[in-house]
Structure formats: structure tokens, C-alpha cells
Amino acid sequence: MNKSPSLRAYAIAYLIFLYAPIALLPLFAFNDSKVIAFPLQGFTTNWFAEMWADQQLFNAFGNSLTIAVSASILSTTLGIFAARASTRYTFPGKAGILGLIMLPMVLPEMIVSMALLVVLMAIGVPLSLFTIILGHVLICTPFAVAILTSAFQSLDRSLEEAAYDLGETPASTFRLIILPLVMPGIISSLLICFTISLDEFIISYFLGGNQTVLSVYIFGQFRFPAKVPAVMALGFVLVCLSICLLTIAEYFRRRGIARSGGKDTGGFL
Amino acid sequence: MKSGSSPGRFGNPEATNGLLMVSPTAIYATLLLAAPLVAVVVYSLMVDSKVGLSSGLTFANYIEVWTGRIYQAIMMRSLTVASLVTAITVLLAYPVAYFVSFHVRPERKSLWLFLITIPFWTSYLIRVFLWKVILGYNGVINSGLLSLGIIDEPLTVINYSVGSMVATLAHAYAPFAILPIFVSLEKIDRSFLEAGQDLGESKLMTFWRVTLPLSMPGVIAAVLIVFIPTIGDYVTPDLIGGGKIPMIANMIEGKMLKQNDKAVGAAIAVTAMLIVSVVSIVFLLLNKRFLRGQK
């Protein structure tokens, strides 16, 4: 393919546009001023100290971790069932059932959370971390299914049949042959669901009752102009954290593709 | 659903095993998604008063929502914002997807895609808030331009407007648009392009008559992937619009929780779902026409 300098310049400009707002985070997280404005006022780590001293933040972060760990494990488990069923079997109503499972991907989150809220209130379930987990599993599962379907698709059916021929039961075949082969997919699904759940706001905001999670805490802080620099510091920490998680997820995804001998087509989605 | 396991109706074990395998996920989705959505539809047909929901079914809520001036205005605004964001995002994203697919060496493609997806996985709230910081009255742009001496007083056109909401959302959903277009461009058989040029078409005409039509399914997927979450966005109107420029999601929240009128809130939610479905169906039909046109 021939080089096209103008297209290349445009693509790089686009990447800069994507990253420019995020680049402001470290700039103002270390800026020694209560006001987020130019010119910069010198270097400080006070905002990180202020963030670190906030007990509410740690409570919210603990809640978010509980939810993200539970939601990622549950939705990956549900994702394994659906992905295995969709890649290995044909059954009546397959398209409809899978369509329902994937529906939250194309439904505005506000509608998902309001529908759940209406039902939970009608049957009298108190709002808590548990109800947030219920909602998060619902919106994480489609992503888990999408990632795991591609992992299961690259499985060679003959490996499984060889195991049966050698006298393994379906259960032991799954444990000994299939699970290790799709493990990279499972890990990348866990990490993606974890990231989605940690970042999710609408469901956490409406289904949490008086329990605060990280995203709801951050949203609350926006109301106080004095807290903004500390939020910038927190945002910087979160961005670094999610880049680490994504790098690990990407590493496992590529290893999974290399292991099953496929070609890298790139991207999570 | 479980009745599929009776051997009389579904003789083949494959169907039974498949249904059994999918059942945990299917049951979860039925209980926590299908049932609540049905409940919303039922709520939307009732009347919410101080004594509780009435038992009779009525279309009164829909008539109120579809003819009320405020509702219409907010829905039109949501549609306008979502359409603008979608158009801008997809138009800006296409050249990038084209560049990565056609001009980047194969071993570097995943790196490019990785770089494009990272901003999408960083906190959505913080990304939206950053735009408030950038566009605000005392924000980055205003203070930057002031300190450089380019302007004498802060620009007010850039804060709390529909335009700044569009900019914020277009930035937030940019990676969503690139990926599907990229995937459809990757699928194009490169020999078609050579054939086009061998037959005497210019590069531009080859793009117009071969590449663009073949990548249309990706463009349409991108349109839907951007349009659907944008029209239901809650955070941006609240933060960037300062709560003064509500969209559908804010209206649903206002009715359901603040005014505690679940019936009307449910009717708005159903209407929003209808709008999303109509737009989706229109674009999916367009997609079908494109696919048929190719053959």
C-alpha cells in the first residue's frame, strides 16, 4: 500500500483529539491552584494527599470493588454458558434467546435501570449493593458473551472428540481440554466486565439506595468546585489503573489468539 | 423454555443440550430484563395518582407524552443532539478507520486499535467532566485564550449549550464509530480495488464505487452504536448542560423519581424505546438494500 501523508496526519490529529482531554488530568492534578485554569501555578502533590485522606472515597471504592468483582465473575460465568451454547449447539429459538441476552448492549442504560427499579420497588426488594450487582451483571453479560464467543469459536471441535474417544466424560473434557483453551478469553472477559462495572454510573446511581460507589461519589464531588482538583487527581489514578488493566487484558487476548493458531484481527469489540 | 428438554418434542439431544446450556443466562435475562421491560409497558398503560396505580388500562399517558409541548421539545432536542453527534462522529471516524485498514502495516494495526480504544475505557464521568472543565466560563479554553491575550473577556457561546453537549458526546463515542467501520473495511477483498483501477477508474472513483458501498454495513453499525447510547445519555445534559438542557433520560428520571409519576415516566421510556427501534429498523433496512445492491 502506498503512503498517504495527509491521511496519516489526520489520523494522528484524531488520536491527539481523543487524548487531549485526558492529558489535562495530570496537568491539573499536579497544579498548585484551587482553580482549574491556565496559566499553571507550579507543582504540588497536595491534591493526591487530600484524595488519600478522604474516608468516604475509600468506602465508595471498597463498595465498587465488591460490586465489580462479583459482577465480573457472575457475568463471565453466565457468558460462558451462553457462548458455549451459541457456538456448539443449534436449538429452537436460538436467535431470539441470544438476542434477549445481548439486548442490554443496544438499550439505553437509563431504560434498563428504570425498568429494574420499577420491578424491585414493586416487589419490595430494598436497594443495596446487591441490587447494583444484579443490574451490572445484566449489562456486563453481553460483553462477556461477545468476547467468549470468539474464544469458543476458535476451538477445534476434534480436540473435544479426541478426549471423548480416550474415555473422558463431558465434564472432565470441559475441565481438562476446553477450559484451558478458552482461559485467555475468560480472563479478558473478567477484566473487561470489571472495568465496565467499575466505570458504570447510571445503574449504580439509581439502584444503590443510600450506598455510594466510586462513580456516584465522583458525580457527587462535581457539585463542589473546591473538590475539583482532588477529583482530577483521582481521575489520573483511575486512568492509570484502567490502562494497566487493559494492557493485561490485551496481552491475554493476543496470547489466546496465538495459542489457538488464529490471526489477530484486533480490538475487543 | 425448559419444556424443550422433554424428549418427545425435541428428539435430538443437541437441541436439549443447547437449551440446557443457555438456560442459566436466558433465565437471568428473562427475569431481570424481559420481565421488567414488560412491567414498564404495563405501567405506561395505567394512571398514577396519589392513591396508587389504577387497574384499568388507558392510552392517556401516551396522548399526554406525544402531544405535550414540553415532551415534544425535549424529544426533538434529544433526536437533534443524537443525530448531530452520530453524523459528526461517523464522518470524522471514517478516514481514521480507512487509514488504519488500508495504510497501516498489518502488524501495527492492533497497536493503533488499542490506542483508539483506551480513552473509551477510561472513566466516562471524568471524560464528560473534563469537557465541562475545558468549555466552562472559567475553563481551560477561556483562561488559555485570556492569558495569551487573544480574547479580552471569556467566551460564553461555548458553555452550557447544545453545541458543547454535541462536542462532548462526539468525543465520548468516537472509538465506537471507528471499530465497526474498520472491521467492514478489513473484510473488503483488496483485488476488487485493483480490478477497479485496472478497468480505468481513478482512485477517487474506485473509493466511491467500490470501497464506500462495501463498507456501508460497518458505517450503519457505527451509526446505531453511536446513536442509541447518545439519545439515552443522562450525564452530559446534567453536567455540560448544567441541568438546564434536559434530554429524554433526564425527563424519564424527573417523572419517575422526582415527580413520582411512574405511569407517565414509563410512557416516556416506552416512547424512547420506540424511537430507538424505528431508527434502528430504518438503518437496518438501508443496510439490507446496500447488501442486495452489491450482488
Automatic annotation (TrEMBL), chain A:
Principal location listed in the UniProt entry: membrane
Domain ABC transmembrane type-1: start-end pairs: 61-249
GO BP terms in the entry: transmembrane transport
InterPro entries reported in the protein's UniProt record: Bact_Polyamine_Transport (IPR051789), MetI-like (IPR000515), MetI-like_sf (IPR035906)
Stretches that traverse the bilayer: 12-30, 60-83, 95-123, 129-152, 173-198, 230-252
Gene Ontology CC annotations of this record: plasma membrane
Keyword tags: Cell membrane, Membrane, Transmembrane, Transmembrane helix, Transport
Listed name of the protein: Spermidine/putrescine ABC transporter
UniProt-listed PANTHER family: PUTRESCINE TRANSPORT SYSTEM PERMEASE PROTEIN POTI
Intracellular or extracellular location(s): Cell membrane
Matches recorded under Pfam families: BPD_transp_1
SUPFAM superfamilies, A to Z: MetI-like
Organism: Gemmobacter lanyuensis
Gene3D superfamilies: MetI-like
Protein family (similarity comment): Belongs to the binding-protein-dependent transport system permease family. CysTW subfamily.
PROSITE patterns: ABC_TM1
Annotated membrane topology: Multi-pass membrane protein
